[in-house]
Design goal:
Elements: H1 4-17, E1 25-27, E2 35-39, E3 46-51, H2 59-76, H3 83-96, H4 100-106
Parallel strand pairs: 1-3
Antiparallel strand pairs: 2-3
Helix pairs in contact: 1-2, 1-4, 2-3
Length: 107
């Protein structure tokens, strides 16, 4: 069973490791996917990261995907998918998927 506390712990450690500000993690229903970043459309600042534990098949990947959105959004004001996003997502997956941080929370 997917544990919200484990997901939250992993998310918080990734934010610290990537020197990102603390953006709230919210567990709720997410429309199409298992996770998303909600942001203020006027300021382009993230409001929170949302995770739907009932729809999220791979919470580790989902968190890394949304952190890639945060990294690009906070530095460039861009939250969509493009080549820069895919490079950042791949970097995060290569660095943290099945890492010590991951094993600590999901093993």
């Amino acid at each position: 069973m997917k544990n919200e506390q484990k997901i939250r712990g992993f998310y918080e450690e990734i934010l610290r490791a990537e020197n990102l500000p603390s953006i709230p993690l919210v567990f709720c229903r997410v429309a199409k996917a298992g996770a998303c970043v909600e942001f203020n459309t006027s300021t382009m600042k993230p409001v929170n990261v949302q995770v739907d534990v009932n729809r999220c098949n791979d919470p580790e990947y989902a968190i890394l995907h949304e952190v890639a959105h945060l990294k690009l959004g906070l530095s460039k004001g861009y939250y969509g998918h493009n080549t820069s996003f895919k490079k950042e997502e791949n970097r995060l997956v290569d660095k943290y998927m099945y890492s010590q941080i991951s094993m600590k929370h999901f093993a």
